[in-house]
Write a structure and sequence with these properties.
Helix content is 38%, strand content 16%. The chain has 170 residues and is of the alpha+beta class. The chain folds into two domains: 41 residues, no CATH class; 114 residues, Herpes Virus-1 (2-Layer Sandwich), CATH 3.30.40. Strand 3 and strand 4 form a beta hairpin. Helix 2 packs across helix 3. The model has no long low-confidence stretch (mean pLDDT 85).
Length: 170
């Protein structure tokens, strides 16, 4: 449990960030601190969160962390890629590796479906091993369409769609 400035007899505490003397309602509850409330006030936490949220490096790191966490939880998956390696790959990937669509690295809204241009991690070979040589960052639409097919099967599928479209004169 971390030390934190406790509330005074009037139920007020000074936020060390903004230096304002504030009531309990202005702080988030937290079991990490002796006072039972976070150190910084809600406004200061929101400001710093918004600042980091807008930085590209933060967006890519958050995506890399969530992606590795999701794949690590899958039974039988071996994750042989570090957060830093995946973050670097994300920073260097502006467009879907399959269709060329620009990827949308903005954070989605809770409760809503992911957008088709959101970045996802595709394992090129559908083994349960995740490493740099077996991964590409692609848009949600391509990854969903490819599914568990091999790249060769995916390309053949795309060709059959084009051929069918050309033959039906839609």
């Amino acid at each position: 449990m971390r030390n934190a400035v406790l509330f005074n007899k009037d139920g007020l505490k000074r936020c060390p960030k903004c230096k304002l003397l504030l009531s309990k309602e202005k702080f988030n509850k937290s079991s990490k601190y002796k006072s039972g409330y976070s150190c910084w006030c809600k406004d200061c936490i929101n400001k710093i969160s918004a600042f980091h949220e807008n930085k590209d490096s933060y967006k890519h790191r958050r995506w890399a962390l969530n992606t590795i966490k999701t794949h690590s939880k899958r039974e039988g998956y071996t994750v042989n890629i570090s957060i830093e390696e995946l973050q670097t790959l994300a920073k260097n990937t502006k467009f879907c590796s399959y269709c060329g669509r620009e990827l949308n690295w903005e954070r989605g809204t809770k409760g809503k479906s992911p957008k088709s241009e959101n970045p996802t991690l595709d394992r090129i070979y559908n083994s349960n091993i995740m490493n740099l040589s077996n991964c590409k960052i692609v848009c949600m639409r391509c990854n969903t369409t490819k599914g568990y097919h091999t790249m060769k099967e995916f390309i053949e599928y795309c060709r059959s769609v084009v051929n069918h479209y050309d033959n039906t004169n839609c």
